[in-house]
């Protein structure tokens, strides 16, 4: 037995150490520039390509070998390498006759002509355009083995789980089996039927949302891990990329090897790589793309040919991320990865496998393999509002299921990573850190059984002064069937306590069905209209709140029901009874009777409709994959004079938001909102147009925080309406790339409002204007000048232009921060 063990160890050691890895680089001998995707033919018959920085690695299995290095437009070089070779830098000499023919001729670039033909034939090669329907199954293995210091991810709140894993968890391993189906009528559907996540009791669905691997390279944008790049075969591809034919590959189905490189990298995000285009159909047979900088990102797409359809269909995708050599930040996972000096430390896997060369280790490796492909799938795909649906049994699959569906070997290294992940996740408290970041993104902080509401801790306004408080709700540690919520705050200027208490019953968490009961005694801004749905529950700073000075008191009892009809259509119904009494000297005159204090019985229905956003549907609920536009928010509110109410009125609100995002990071935003009310309307329940200009004479005394959809030159309490329409247009230019850490954003702003007011004589002891002539302002913002701070300037013009410059002009600062 001992002898057998010795033989196994001896031969394994021979295999491990019998090969030598020889690194090297291929460059242009005259310009010293790297030659990307140069072909290196090894004597034994294998072939490799250099990376985009000209680098390569050769596994030498013999004492010496002859290699041949070739590149279009350059003299071919033959070199002998041996075990004595430590590093090989090859300088290739340009062959000017060929360069003149291939690259510098007066005629059209043959590569561009080829790409134009490939773009013209795109619909004939894209499975989604060519086929009525198809289905297939995929197995995906996703590993992060982050054994180095110096790399960190700055991501938005939607990527909080990935940010935590990369920066603090330092390791991750998951497996996924999905059934995919497509029909030309209802589009693509993915059902996750199996999922395993090492180290976590439950799958990290937020990370699963990052694994939206692009099936097709024929789209306008190539999206990889929440980051969009210009598509190499998009209609405008020739504006974004330079192309060069490197070779023609001889095989059963020959292909052109076409190199592509971004031509507007500082403007439009692009990848650098090669396309293997079928010489007959110009379909993609294989593709490879890379990014080099703080990290090295490599993506390989492999297609399989189906002769009966004359179609190349995706077979496999491999994504690798490794430490780079520093330099530019790389955008991935919805954020940026930057690096100072990468220190490659010795980790557990190095100890297990005896690796002395950590530079070869892969720190992220995602491989997806497609199988059971059916290109004659005719039945209609069940339409789903969720792009990815995780079935309830997905996380409970047994070993037989995984043995049948693992189409990629689960190696000893993978098992070692799994053990490491289990240990690191538990020791590092990564589940807790993900829980905290997820809660913070929604405005709370988990403290044991209590989720602390961050918005209740501190506020300031002109009426209450400093407002300190405490609030929140119980979490699943108390019960997964209900929560108890409440808050209490105190204003140090008005010296009044405000408070609220309630409960929420979870009828169906997956569909977001909740039954709410609440009581609160607080203050609210006069003429405000708050949508029950579509509002941000928490923001770091509420720009307008600081300067509001016209409030009223209310005491409200309410009951309501929330229900998500589909992931894209969320609704809420609320019935409430309010007791209202005034803070300022205001009286409402109705039928010769004066009302200063009154009661309201109200029913409200609100909805949020996001028809173009993409969602992940899990057993625990829905996670938004990508917020896309337009989206719509609406609310109908009816107050009844019956059931103890004093007034009968109706209020309507509808808001449409649209955003055009471009690959050069510029964007244009539109917000169109309309409000309409009729009936017995006290001033407390009419509308204002979100004014945000303090009522002070000096420009600098009005210096405050600018809002996103507020009128910066409109004074508080200046205008009120019973019907109004508002349009906000913001156009942000691409960031100004002044330096790595200083990239301010210039924004042009236009705002318009028009409105009317019925029966203004009913409102006693207050004076205000109406908007029937139309209100206009224009402005500029220079954002992210320092630590999220910027500056804003706006000017009022048109019908409501005032007599002096300083009355029409506003100057404020902006603050753009993300949790």
UniProtKB/TrEMBL annotation:
Gene3D superfamilies recorded: Carboxypeptidase-like, regulatory domain (2.60.40.1120)
InterPro entries reported in the protein's UniProt record: CarboxyPept-like_regulatory (IPR008969), DUF5686 (IPR043741)
Transmembrane feature ranges: none
Recorded GO MF terms: carboxypeptidase activity
Keyword terms, alphabetized: Carboxypeptidase, Hydrolase, Protease
Protein name: DUF5686 and carboxypeptidase regulatory-like domain-containing protein
């Amino acid at each position: 037995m001992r002898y057998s063990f010795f033989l196994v160890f001896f031969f394994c050691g021979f295999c491990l150490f019998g090969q030598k890895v020889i690194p090297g680089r291929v460059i242009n001998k005259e310009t010293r520039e790297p030659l990307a995707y140069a072909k290196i033919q090894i004597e034994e018959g294998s072939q490799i390509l250099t990376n985009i920085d000209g680098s390569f690695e050769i596994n030498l299995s013999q004492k010496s070998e002859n290699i041949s290095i070739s590149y279009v437009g350059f003299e071919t070089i033959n070199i002998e390498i041996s075990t004595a070779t430590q590093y090989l830098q090859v300088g290739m000499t340009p062959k000017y006759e060929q360069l003149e023919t291939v690259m510098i001729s007066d005629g059209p670039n043959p590569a561009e002509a080829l790409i134009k033909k490939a773009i013209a034939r795109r619909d004939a090669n894209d499975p989604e355009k060519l086929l009525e329907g198809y289905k297939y199954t995929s197995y995906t293995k996703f590993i992060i083995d982050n054994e180095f210091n110096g790399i960190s991810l700055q991501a938005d709140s939607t990527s909080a789980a990935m940010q935590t894993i990369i920066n603090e968890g330092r390791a991750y391993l998951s497996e996924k089996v999905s059934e995919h189906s497509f029909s030309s009528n209802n589009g693509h559907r993915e059902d996750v039927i199996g999922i395993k996540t090492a180290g976590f009791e439950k799958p990290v669905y937020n990370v699963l949302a990052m694994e939206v691997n692009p099936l097709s390279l024929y789209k306008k944008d190539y999206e990889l891990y929440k980051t969009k790049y210009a598509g190499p075969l998009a209609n405008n591809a020739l504006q974004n990329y330079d192309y060069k034919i490197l070779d023609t590959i001889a095989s059963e189905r020959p292909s052109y090897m076409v190199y592509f490189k971004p031509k507007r990298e500082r403007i439009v995000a692009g990848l650098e790589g090669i396309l293997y285009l079928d010489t007959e159909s110009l379909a993609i047979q294989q593709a490879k793309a890379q990014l080099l900088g703080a990290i090295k990102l490599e993506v390989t797409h492999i297609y399989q040919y189906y002769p009966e359809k004359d179609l190349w269909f995706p077979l496999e995708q491999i994504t690798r991320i490794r430490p780079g050599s520093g330099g530019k930040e790389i955008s991935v996972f919805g954020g940026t990865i930057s690096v100072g000096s990468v220190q490659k430390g010795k980790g557990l896997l190095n100890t297990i496998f005896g690796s002395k060369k950590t530079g070869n280790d892969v720190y992220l490796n995602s491989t997806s393999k497609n199988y059971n492909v059916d290109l004659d799938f005719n039945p209609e795909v069940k339409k789903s509002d969720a792009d990815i649906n995780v079935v309830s049994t997905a996380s409970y699959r047994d070993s037989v299921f995984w043995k049948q569906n693992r189409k990629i070997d689960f190696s000893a290294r993978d098992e070692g990573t799994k053990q490491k992940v289990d240990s690191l996740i538990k020791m590092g408290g990564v589940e807790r850190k993900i829980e905290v970041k997820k809660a913070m993104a929604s405005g709370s902080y988990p403290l044991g059984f209590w989720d602390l509401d961050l918005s209740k801790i501190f506020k300031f306004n002109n009426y209450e002064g400093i407002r300190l408080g405490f609030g929140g709700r119980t979490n699943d540690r108390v019960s997964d069937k209900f929560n108890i919520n409440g808050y209490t705050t105190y204003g140090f200027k008005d010296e009044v306590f405000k408070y609220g208490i309630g409960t929420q019953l979870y009828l169906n968490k997956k569909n977001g069905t909740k039954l709410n009961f609440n009581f609160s005694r607080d203050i609210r801004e006069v003429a405000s209209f708050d949508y029950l749905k579509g509002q941000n529950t928490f923001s770091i700073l509420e720009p307008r709140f600081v300067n509001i000075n016209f409030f009223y008191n209310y005491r409200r009892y309410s009951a309501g029901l929330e229900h998500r009809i589909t992931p894209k259509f969320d609704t809420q119904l609320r019935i409430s009874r309010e007791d209202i009494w005034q803070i300022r000297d205001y009286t409402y005159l109705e039928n010769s009777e004066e009302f200063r204090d009154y009661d309201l019985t109200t029913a409200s229905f609100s909805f949020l409709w996001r028809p173009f956003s993409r969602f992940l549907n899990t057993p625990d609920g829905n996670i938004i994959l990508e917020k896309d536009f337009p989206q719509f928010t609406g609310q109908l509110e009816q107050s009844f004079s019956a059931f103890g109410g004093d007034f009968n009125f109706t209020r309507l609100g509808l808001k449409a938001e649209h955003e055009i995002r471009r690959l050069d990071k510029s964007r244009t935003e539109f917000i169109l909102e309309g409000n309409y009310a009729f009936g017995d309307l006290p001033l407390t329940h009419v509308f204002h147009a979100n004014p945000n200009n303090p009522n002070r004479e000096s420009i600098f005394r009005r210096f405050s925080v600018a809002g996103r959809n507020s009128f910066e030159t409109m004074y508080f309490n200046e205008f009120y309406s019973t019907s109004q329409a508002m349009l906000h247009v913001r156009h942000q230019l691409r960031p100004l790339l002044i330096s790595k850490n200083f990239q301010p954003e210039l924004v042009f702003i236009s705002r318009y409002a028009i409105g009317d007011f019925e029966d203004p004589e009913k409102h006693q002891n207050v004076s205000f204007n109406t908007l029937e002539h139309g209100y206009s302002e224009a402005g500029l913002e220079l954002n992210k000048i320092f630590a999220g701070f910027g500056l804003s300037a706006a000017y009022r013009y048109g019908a409501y232009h005032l007599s002096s410059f300083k009355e029409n002009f506003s100057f404020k600062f902006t603050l753009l921060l993300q949790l």
